[in-house]
Design brief:
Elements lengths: L4 H31 L10 H10 L6 E4 L5 H8 L5 E5 L2 H14 L3 E5 L13 E7 L9 H11 E12 L29 E3 L16 E3 L4 H9 L3 E9 L8 H6 L6 E8 L12
Parallel strand pairs: 1-2, 1-4, 2-3, 4-5
Antiparallel strand pairs: 5-9, 6-7, 8-9
The protein binds S-adenosylmethionine (SAM).
S-adenosylmethionine (SAM) binds next to helix 1, helix 3 and strand 2.
Length: 280
């Protein structure tokens, strides 16, 4: 039976706090060095870069939801973005992000909060709300999430998703023993979240029995409907055979024409006096 939203998000918070020291052991020193170089950016995915170029970041106010240690947001700041706010539920990730921002002088603000509890004072403050690789799968209620996102945006602001394609969630992860990486081993439609204790150390590759975490696979139609239901008019949608998650690289290498990631843009479009109705 499904539990309430906070049950899942708090469990996931504990699991993320547990893994962060492992991530830091694997990559923190290198990140510190990289970001000490003025103008450094860690964003190298060509599909993502093309979309970023189209939307023109210059001076734009950006909120990055589920930003982890803030490296993507700090990269966008280095690429010319305006005010940047990063939000994440993980204490250790936000501490790292704040420390690096302070050390490097890259002017980004970070707050630790569950996306479902973002204070109202941030409403209607942003031009762009960003969600990237491996963000929305941690979120139990996708419709409520996009309601919060829509609240954060000014009218005509956009939400930009660069995410793991839910089709790829049917296939084995790179570290799964299954030899045929193209075999469908999971359903596309799921009523319950996936409860796991598997290692979250996709950066250091260490194995440990992790605190219980909950992963929610949202289908493409659920995501699109959540945008539609929250005044986010779809302006761009593209699917790509490139992995953005670091856990489906083997399928990418097979070049089997499988959708592994997607980019989606919704523009906040509120019509004055529009009736609140779900009629088509
Ligand atoms: C895979 S990481 C995102 C990585 C990010 N795309 C990057 O490359 O840095 C997922 C992040 O979502 C955060 N997260 C999970 N549930 C959350 C929630 N309810 N509210 C805010 N952040 C959450 C986790 O703490 C974690 O840092």
């Amino acid at each position: 039976m499904k539990k309430n939203i906070r049950f899942y998000t708090q469990k996931n918070r504990e699991a993320w706090n547990e893994v962060m020291p492992r991530h830091q052991k694997a990559v923190k020193q290198k990140l510190d060095q990289s970001f000490s170089v003025p103008g450094y950016t860690c964003i190298n995915d060509q599909n993502f870069l093309q979309v970023l170029e189209k939307i023109n970041l210059k001076g734009k106010k950006i909120v990055h939801l589920c930003c982890n240690n803030g490296t993507e947001l700090m990269s966008l700041k280095n690429m010319g973005a305006g005010h940047c706010l990063g939000i994440d539920i993980c204490d250790a990730a936000i501490t790292e992000a704040r420390e690096r921002a302070e050390k490097t002088g890259i002017d980004c603000e970070f707050i630790r909060t569950d996306v479902y509890d973002i204070p109202q004072e941030f409403n209607e403050s942003f031009d762009i709300a960003l969600i990237t690789a491996g963000g929305i799968g941690w979120l139990p209620d996708i419709n409520l999430f996009f309601k919060k996102v829509s609240n954060l945006l000014q009218n005509s602001g956009i939400v930009l998703l660069h995410e793991i394609h839910p089709f790829s969630e049917m296939l084995p992860f790179d570290d799964n023993n299954c030899e045929n990486k193209l075999q469908i081993i999971e359903p596309y439609f799921r009523d319950e979240p996936i409860e796991e204790n598997s290692s979250l150390d996709y950066l250091g590759g260490t194995d440990y029995i992790a605190k219980t975490q909950y992963w929610h696979v949202h289908t493409i139609s659920e995501i699109i409907m959540a945008l539609i239901n929250n005044s986010l008019l779809i302006k761009h949608f593209s699917e790509h055979p490139q992995d953005c998650s670091a856990v489906h690289k083997k399928q990418e290498d097979l070049k089997a024409g499988i959708p592994l990631s997607y980019l989606l843009i919704g523009k906040k479009t509120v019509y004055p006096n529009a009736e609140k109705t779900n009629d088509i």
